[in-house]
Amino acid sequence: MLIRELLGIPMPAGQRLDINSGVARLSGKIWATLWRDDRRTPTTAVLIVHPASNFLGHYALSDLAERGVAAVGLCTRYVGNDSALIMENCVLDIGAAIAHLHRLGYSEIVLVGNSGGGGLAALYQEQAENPTITETPAGDPVDLAGAGLIPADRLVMAMAHPGRATVYTEGLDPAIVDEQDPFGRDPGLDMFDPQHGPPYPAEFVQRYRAAQIARNERISGWAFERLTQLTKLDRPGPDDLPFVVHGTAADLRFTDLTLDPSDRRAGTLWGDPWTANTQPASLGHLTSLRSWLSQWSHTHSRANAYQRLRGVSAPVMVVYGSADCAAFPSHARGMYDAVRHDRRELVEIAGADHYFQGTPELAARMCDHIVEWST
Question: What angle do CA 221, 223, 228 make, to 5 degrees?
């Protein structure tokens, strides 16, 4: 029989007020659920992570537990609210969870970065194996190098993209010319203007991608300038500010299926691309200056699996779905190619979309791969 436990894990202290809820701050805990089969005594725990998603009810937990491992879904301190999220603090939260699982008697830890957890899991493992980071991109102290992070024994990138900053930049709308107005647009860079496609010509794709990076870097430069201005206020005041980013679901692959070909359908995780591009529930519209640099900045965010996996010595499995419209085949191949040893595996789940909607048998197949590879 499967049983479920709620784990209250001591939360490493943060350096600033970045959690709105006083209840959450004062509890001093992050939370996870642990599933296991009470007829077995597993020694392996599979820990599934994401920077901000609530994984207490993750779809893979019961399937994994049925296969004889302890399955753990983690919530970081930023669960449900990434507007002030600092990736380096999420690394500390994973470290606290792994240490807690060792205290519970689990000797083998498989770290699974799911969806937006891919870049975070890669950053964690690289820093646990080769700790170097002592401050955030904004310059705030965060001593990953001295945190005593325990490396996971294996790493899985499951239905994952290489990192929030990477996929965010790939979806950043370069046609927006006024950061305050999503509808003041450059017609020469507007993917929603039918004169350009789809399908989109190679010249347009190249120009569009360069303009996306340029917009991201302009916002990063502005964020640094604003932080400097805050240090010059006449009176003590805030050291961070919130701001809005319009146009974050404008990846050309959402409408052009000839780019990064796969079995996916056109569209986004949030529906029609034009609507998703500006609706508040889609990706990363509200952020702070410091969070932008840590979480969304193309140049400054460290949670980039393409870069971090180069420094990982643990075995790495990359699992992707052929019908996924958020984590594309090139993401999976790029992460697999970044691993610099031969203890790696690339697995395609044919027909699987990002959340295995309506296909629980395909989710079970992913869990089969993870457990068979972990034992």
Answer: 100
